[in-house]
Known about the structure:
Order of helices and strands of chain A: EHEHEHEHEHHEHEHHEEE
Radius of gyration of chain A: 19 Å
Helix content of chain A: 25-40%
Oligomer: homodimer
Largest sheet of chain A: 6 strands, parallel
Number of domains of chain A: 2
Number of strands of chain A: 10
Amino acid sequence: MPDLTIIQTGDALRQTVRRWKREGLTVGLVPTMGALHAGHLSLIELARAHCDRVIATIFVNPRQFSPGEDLDAYPRTMERDTALLREAGCHALFAPAVSEIYPDGFATSITVAGISEGLCGATRPNFFGGIATVVAKLLILAEPDKAFFGEKDYQQLLVIRRLVTDLALPVEIIGGALVREADGLAMSSRNAYLSGNERQMALTLYHTLKEVTAGLEAGAEPGRLIAMGLERLVSAGFRMDYLELRDAETLEPIERLERPARLLAGGYLGKTRLIDNMPVTPRSHG
Amino acid sequence: MPDLTIIQTGDALRQTVRRWKREGLTVGLVPTMGALHAGHLSLIELARAHCDRVIATIFVNPRQFSPGEDLDAYPRTMERDTALLREAGCHALFAPAVSEIYPDGFATSITVAGISEGLCGATRPNFFGGIATVVAKLLILAEPDKAFFGEKDYQQLLVIRRLVTDLALPVEIIGGALVREADGLAMSSRNAYLSGNERQMALTLYHTLKEVTAGLEAGAEPGRLIAMGLERLVSAGFRMDYLELRDAETLEPIERLERPARLLAGGYLGKTRLIDNMPVTPRSHG
C-alpha cells in the first residue's frame, strides 16, 4: 500500500500533481463529501485502474446545501475515511477548510442551465450551481487527467460532463457504476440517518425502480407504469419529489422508450433524502 | 519580427502553449474583441515585456451583448488587426468561430456577484456574466502564465481579478494603463462610431473627469463636485448612466476620499456608448 499524503491547501495540491506529471505519472481525482462507503471506494479502485496516482477530495460543500437542508448534520467521519482511503490504495487526500475553497470575498457562481433543471434541481435550488462551482474549482486546482463520479448521482454526473465540455477543462470525466447494499439499497452517506424501520422501508425504492425498469424494457407504456410506481412508493411511506423516465444523455423527458433512457427517483423517507436510478434500454438496443 | 501564427481551434491553442511551456518559455495572453487601436497594442507591448511568447485573442463575444446592443454593428477589421499584431511583434492570434467557444448545447454561465453590480453592470444585464464566462474559458484553454487587460475597462479588470482568485485559475492578471488620443479621449473601438461633431463633444468626458479628479484630490466634497460634473456632461449632450467615485479595489461606493479611489463614467453620445475612468488619490497617499 502506498502512503496516504494529506493535503490541505490548494497550492500544495497543485504542486503535488504537477510534480507527479513531471515524473510522467497520470493523475485521477475522486471528489467526495466524505462519509465514505463502498460506492466511493469503488471509484478509488476505478481511478487506480485508470491512473498512476489517485487523489480523493473530502469537502462538505456548503454551497450545494439550501437553507433547512442537512449541512450541519451531514455525517463527518474523517478518521475512518482516512483509514479507508489508505486501505484502498489512494495516494493523496485533499481535505481543505471551507476558507481554502471560498476565500474572503468569494463572489463567483457557475451554473449549468438545462440539465440542472428538473429532477433534483427542481426542489434543491442551490444544488447543482453549488456543485458546478466547487467541482470546477477542484478540477482547476488539481489539474487531473481524469476525474471520477458515481452514477448514483446521475444528474450530477451529466451536469459535470456539460460543465467540462463547455469550459474546455482539460480532464476526462469517468462515471462509476452505482454500488448497492446486498439487499439492493443504493449506497449513500445519508443511509446512516435511517432508523431500523426506515432502512427496511427504503428497500421499496430499489424494488420499485427494478420493476418499473423491467416493465418498460418489456414494452409497457411509461406513463401508466410510472404512476403505479409512484403510488407504491407513497404507500410505502416515501414523500416523492420525482420518479421520471429521461433521455440517458440529455435528461430530456421522454414519453416512449426509443433510445437509451434512465429511470430516476428522488424523495424523502422521514427526514432522509434518498435518490436512486437505473438504466432503461429499449429492446432494439438490448 | 516573429511570424504571427493564426490559431482557430481551442485544441490547437492549447497545444501551441504547451509546446512553448515545454521549451521553458513563458506565455502571455491578451484577450480582445478586435478593432484594435493603440490601447490594445500597448497591452501587446506590455505582454512582450513580461513574457517570452504573446498570444492575442480576437473574439466578439455575443454573450456580453444584450438584445438591442451593438453586437452586429461592432467593428470587425480582421485583416487590419492581423497586420497590426504582426507589426507589434505578437507571436500568435487565436481567432475562434463562435461555435468553437460555444459548442452545441452550451449551457454554462459564470457570474461574479458584488463587483459586477452597479456602474456598467446596472444597465448592461448580460455584460459581466458574458465576460466572466468567456474569459474563464479563454484562460482555461490557453493556460497562459499571465493575462493582460486594459484599465479602460476598469470594472471588467476587477471582475476578472475576482474570478481568477475565486476559481484559483493559475494565471497572473496584469492591468495595462488606459491609452488616450492626443487630445485626451480614451481610445475605444467604439470611437469609430462617432460623427465628426460627436468626436468633438466626446472630449467633454475627458475634461470633466480630469477636473472632477483634480477637485477631489484638492479636497473638495465628492457629492457636490460629481453632481456638477454630471450636469456638465448632460449639457454637452451625453446621456449618462453613471459618474461615480468608488473604492479603487473593491469598487464599493465611497463618500469621502480617504483611500485610493477611482472616478468612473459611462454613458451614451448619440448611439455610441463611451466609458472612461481615472485614479483619484487622497492627499495623504500622494
